């Protein structure tokens, strides 16, 4: 807990936002495994007076499939409680007239069904994992470098995350590669974007100081929340276990 | 020509350093093609009083194979005239006791034959092209993140280069990805590193103001040379044609 005011936090606390990967479950083959105690913790929070939302930078599955995965692991959770970058990006694309070239995981594509993707005037990248091939990265790069005003949206900006067999590069690393090649600054949609956290607060009808964000990422979860005026708490599961700070 | 002192440069000029890809030839399938006029230009420079060296960030072939390729395109050129990042990196690795994990193109591997690669304590990346797979990048990342003091050497830091069918991401983009993921700053071996340019000047026995660097890359060739006190001249072939500044 980075904030020394923590003992006084409980009085005003009205809502909790939970990161998912590394807090509720560890990813891996077959959908991953629930972290011991996390299913019960969600149950207790739901039984309490606190509001509860889930906030993830997961971009390998659309929300429906993602929630189904969490349910199969034993979590009591519904789509309306989950905030993820893809729907937020779709709203931004439509609002600003962008037609994306997508470099995302196949499982995420349905989220973009309603978006015009002809004659792209921007690039959207998510955690494409094994779809981050040399060819696909060059293709995204060529779209960007061919635009008069290149615009890159990144679904989250994470450095890495824990997979079943170790750590894997996250979308943020590939975002930096394209930023450097095209001499641009990407727009991050998802954590730690203040806009993204604010949309969760709006949904709960809470002020920032009334909410606590719990995650395993010091920058995207804890730092992002603190930048918005929320409390942030880092768990010692997920990537925390793998890299000591 | 960015330097307004150019008209006075000829008087003191004693040596010319030529970039290769995009200046002498365009890369592509089958080894690429010579740029019209470049074979004759090299001949004229060799017949003049000026010293001539070739300075490349080429890291897909070892120097012998690279020079053979240039010869087959019609250039009068020898291995001793060519300066490339891999031999410079080998010298640094040996001097500082580093055992590299290599993420480089297969053709470059012979350059590292004399280097101990067991139990790696650093990572070296070159323009690995299609070897920049998700798996290989994760592997390099895991080596770095597992080190107490992660050290990354990058053979050049270019953003992109021209291939036969368009532009391709260069090693610098992947360097930035690993820098971000591991929160480190890579050491660039090759252009635009001042150490690298100085080794070419030393070989010619010239002072910086006596040499002119000619290349198609505004940062790595022209800027790098100017940072060392040399003159820099940007040609309008190679990547210049593809991206207007």
Automatic annotation (TrEMBL), chains A, B:
Pfam families: Hydrolase_6 (PF13344), Hydrolase_like (PF13242). It is found in: Cytoplasm; Nucleus. It catalyses: diphosphate + H2O = 2 phosphate + H(+). Keywords: Cytoplasm, Hydrolase, Magnesium, Metal-binding, Nucleus. It comes from the Eukaryota. Its cofactor is Mg(2+). One of its GO terms (cellular component) is nucleus. Its EC number is 3.6.1.1. Belongs to the HAD-like hydrolase superfamily. Phosphatase that hydrolyzes imidodiphosphate, 3-phosphohistidine and 6-phospholysine. Has broad substrate specificity and can also hydrolyze inorganic diphosphate, but with lower efficiency. This is Phospholysine phosphohistidine inorganic pyrophosphate phosphatase. It comes from Notothenia coriiceps (black rockcod). The lineage of its organism: Eukaryota, Metazoa, Chordata, Craniata, Vertebrata. The gene is lhpp.
